[in-house]
Amino acid sequence: RRINRPGGGFGGVAIVAVDLSYWERLLRAGHLGESGAVALVGLDGSARALFAPTADLQHKMMGADFGFLAGRAAVGGEAGGRVTEAGNGEGLDGTWVYRRVEGFPLLVAVAANDRATAARLHEIRNRYAGGALAIIVLVVLFTLALLIFVSRQRQHAAERARMAESWRQSEARFRAVFDQAEVGMGLRDIGRRDEPWLQVNRRLCEFVGYGEHELLQLPATVINVPEDDGFAADRDALMARGEVTTYSREKQYLRKDGSRVWGHLTVTVLHYPDGRPAQALSIVQDINDRKLAEA
After folding, report:
1. Is the distance from CB of 143 to CB of 131 less than 8 angstroms?
2. Closest Cα to residue 27, out of 48, 56, 10?
3. β-pairing verdict for 199-200 and 47-51
4. Are the CB atoms for 51 and 27 separated by under 8 Å?
5. pLDDT reading at 207 higher than 60
6. Residue 75 pLDDT > 70, yes or no?
7. Which residue has the higher pLDDT, 243 or 62?
8. Which DSSP letter does residue 103 get?
9. How far apart are CA 168 and CA 220, in angstroms?
10. What is d(CA 26, CA 36) in angstroms, rounded to the nearest whole number?
């Protein structure tokens, strides 16, 4: 820089030296990857230091004309800004952002190659698009599996409802026949002869002289005569093992007043859905008059 005397005459020149290796190290530390470049540019349009992705590009750009930046940042011009350069053949294609170095005829410029950046963004977009597609496929498969599961659950629920309704109707028909039959009927668990009846109908209660509520509180064996206990216990064990499903015989019953009456007994096993023995249905027909006549 010229130094003037107080009267305006030439008084000498002041020279300031800048260590460009510092700027080069700084620019290398600011490496922008495969699509970027950083340059320290003089206001004369020449690069003082530069860092580019490859050595060839760095050599080519060191000899390039940065006048398109220097002209904007000349003394009195813009302190910083953004410029897009295309097709100059010197490796300067892309968008440049620059800022003047305060107190020096220099500016720092950072560039990103638009084509390389676009290619990189395209690669990233494709990678994420592939991942998004995989996620969409998984979501679709999961949704289909969920729909199939829900459909099957509805089918199973409908089947269970149908079976429950069928069972209810069967139970209602059985109860109607059970209550209105003109023969005595009683229902009990197999293998539990000493426990009360589960159900008894009106005709059985009349036959043995007990009220329904009263008979349901007593062991099923209360109406058996003592000499029949052995035979009845043996048949009950055979039914519990599934070896016998039904049997019939004529036998005497013990009424509440202590008297004995003759009945024809038929016992049938009722099964669980899986085939296991569940309950014994006893059907008793009054044959007392016939037996007395035969005597």
Report:
1. no
2. 48
3. unpaired
4. yes
5. yes
6. no
7. 243
8. T
9. 26
10. 15
| Residue 288 CB neighbour total at 10 angstroms | 15
The least confident of 156-165, 241-250, 285-294 is 156-165
Structure tokens at 84: 């897009």
Q: Phi first, then psi: what are they for 256, rounded to 5°?
A: -60, -35
What is d(CA 37, CA 25) in angstroms, rounded to the nearest whole number? 13
What are 96-105's pLDDT values in tens digits?
Answer: 788 887 777 7
- The first and second tokens of residue 71, run together, are 């002209």
**Mean pLDDT, residues 187-213:** 90
Dihedral in degrees, nearest 10, Cα atoms 82, 88, 89, 90: -50
Q: Taking Cα atoms as reference points, which of 204, 199, 212 lies closest to residue 171? A: 199
Q: Do the beta carbons of residue 170 and residue 273 sit within 8 Å?
A: no
Question: What's the half-sphere exposure (Cβ side, CA atoms, 13 Å) at 14?
Answer: 5
pLDDT of residue 124: 60
List, in order, residues 6 or more apart from 222 with CB less than 8 Å away.
254
Distance CA 146, CA 159 (A): 20
pLDDT tens digits along 167-199: 677 777 777 778 778 899 999 998 888 889 999
Contacts of 194 (CB under 8 A, 6+ apart): 219, 220, 221
Are 256 and 222 within 8 A, CB to CB? no
Whether residue 40 contacts residue 27, with contact meaning beta carbons closer than 8 Å, is answered with yes
DSSP string, 89-118: SSS--EEEEEEE-TTSSEEEEEEE-HHHHH
